[in-house]
Amino acid sequence: MDSRHLHYFIALAETLHFGHAAARMNMTQPPFSRQIAQLEASLGAQLVARNSRHVRLTAAGVHFLQDARRILADLDKAGRDARLIAAGQKGELRLGFMMHAADSILPDLVRQYRAAHPDVRITLREIIPADIASHVLQGEIDAGLTFASPNVTGLTRLPLLSDVLQLIVPKDHPLADRADACAHDLQDQDIILAPAHIAGALRDAVMAYFLQAGLVPRIGLEPGLQHSIVQLVAAGLGVALVPASVSRTARPDIATIPLIAPPRLDIVLLTALRNTNPAVAGLESIAVTMR
């Protein structure tokens, strides 16, 4: 039995006439009748009762008609879904992101992707910046938003935006009212900074900013989360250099001061060279328009 037999039987059940059903299926009656007989033989059940004048469904035929319609509908849906998934219009997209991206590009990227691909379910996963590349390579996520770092074999890197670093200090800090600041203004300050194994690119940018001025920063506390850094600055436990996108959402008890010749950090979209999820192409297309 195959799907053709189901179509034949449904035609017969809807017309209750072998000749009319055969014509609907573009067949002559004798081969059509043989197909119905083969179907009944394969099932081991009589589906239609025949006589010289009438055709009617048996109890088994009435039930089989319902199942046949459902099976064909399921097959049709499976075919449509397969085509949509292959075209990246249906399925799931697993997107990893660092918290800094949530303060900048992530909301708009997700909003535009959902509008263009409403049948693709987006799964968001917040990951520390240093781990996003490995998660993409290992196939745990389909794409990731993170700071740019040296090229990694097996990954493609799409630059999305460039974010400058700014200084944040408590509102009552001596630098709070400054129009700008430089590394020399911070040489006696405790710098709150994420460790390298959490946000290596951010830490490297901060360290390079001081080294270019001939200084070594005085690193104080080293929390792992950007939110914690902001909280510690508000508590008066140090100052920090953070991306401008983060400083825009800082607390009212924190002052933001532009840096002179500020370091820049690129945020990129990472995907695997051997990516097998068609939904990723749509994400990359939208990301390109946002640069």
From TrEMBL:
CDD domains noted in UniProt: PBP2_LTTR_aromatics_like
Annotated HTH lysR-type domain residues: 1-58
A Pfam family reported for this protein in Swiss-Prot or TrEMBL: HTH_1
GO terms under cellular component: protein-DNA complex
Keywords: DNA-binding, Transcription, Transcription regulation
MF term (GO), any: DNA binding
Protein family (similarity comment): Belongs to the LysR transcriptional regulatory family.
Name of the protein described by the UniProt record: LysR-family transcriptional regulator
Source organism of the structure: Ketogulonicigenium vulgare (strain WSH-001)
